Amino acid sequence: SIRRKHLERIILATHNKAKQETLQWVLEDLCLTSVLPDEFFRKIHVDEDGSSHVENAKQKALVVSNVTGEMAIGTDGGLLVPALGNSWDSKKTRRFAGEKADDIMRLDCLLKLMAPYKGKDRTIAWVEAVALARNEEVLETWQVVGANGILAENYDEDQIVPGFWVYSIWDFPDLGKKYSELTEEDKLAVNDPWFIIRSKVRQYIQMG
Predict the structure, then answer these.
(1) How far lies 62's CA from each of 54, 167, 195, in Å?
(2) Angle between the 193-207 and 17-27 helix axes, to the nearest 10 degrees?
(3) Which residues is 175 bridged to in the sheet?
(4) 45-55 average pLDDT score
């Protein structure tokens, strides 16, 4: 459990600006202060070679927490693409097109891989894992799968969300919208993983 005296600061174990903003939203108005990693943490290497998204999230949280001696929150997520079977690994969603690929390269590569598939065969979903750690202890982990949608066949560069590039090709036909166009009410309706994680994390911290 989390004792109140440890809730003053929590380090966000990510340099992804979009993830930082999302984590700040997850933790807003709680009795703690979210702290962004400084330049020092850019020198910390996390292999992200865990056997699951939960393991990767734990690695990130533990590394940052061990260095700072403070509580840290780490995340790891990925796109689920059932049509691609074993040829697709959600844990490598950010790196599947190459370590140096940018968002446009990732989008183009995924659309090329999915070109043979149509209709419901283009179903996709998102899995997100979050871990809280302090020193050498993992306090709690969560993993949520949700927001089933359809992979679009094209994208608009103006709709690309840096750090969350999948949003621009993630269609929700029943709503007639892409993920990047969803309102908070829409996200609740499609079981967006982050809304579920937000509830779980907040409940855990508030009960501490």
Answers:
(1) 12, 29, 24
(2) 50
(3) none
(4) 83
Place of tokens 């049509």: 83
Per-residue pLDDT reduced to its tens digit, 60-99: 999 988 888 889 999 999 999 999 999 999 999 989 999 8
The structure's pTM equals 0.88
Task: Give φ, ψ of 160 to 5 degrees.
Answer: -70, 125
Q: Cα angle at 16 between 13 and 17, to 5 degrees?
A: 110
Model confidence over 3-30: pLDDT tens digits? 544 457 899 998 888 889 999 999 998 8
Q: How many CB atoms lie within 10 A of CB 34?
A: 17
SS3 114: coil
- The residue written with tokens 């799968």 in the block is 145
11, β-bridge pairs: 35, 72
- Taken in order 41, 208, 54, 91, the sign of the CA dihedral is negative
